[in-house]
Amino acid sequence: MEISARNGLKGKVDDVKLGEVMASIKIAVEEPGIITAIITKESAEDLDLKEGDEVKAIIKSTEIMVAK
């Protein structure tokens, strides 16, 4: 996958909490430890995020996106 963002941290999904509209995805990374990304429930389901998945936290300005 090619994207323009350059601030990416590899990690593993530590926890997935699905709400009615949004999803909270906790990602364990080497430093600083845990990053929490708030993404839409639809995106979490489309990516089929599960605890233990290898993912990358992509940081752009005030947002954190999730790539799998």
Automatic annotation (TrEMBL):
Its main location: membrane. It holds the Pfam family TOBE. It is found in: Cell membrane. It is a peripheral membrane protein. GO terms for cellular component: plasma membrane. Residues 2-68 form the Mop domain. GO terms for biological process: molybdate ion transport. It comes from the Archaea. Keywords: Molybdenum. Coiled coil: none annotated. The keyword Signal does not apply. This is Molybdenum-pterin binding domain-containing protein. It comes from Methanobrevibacter olleyae.
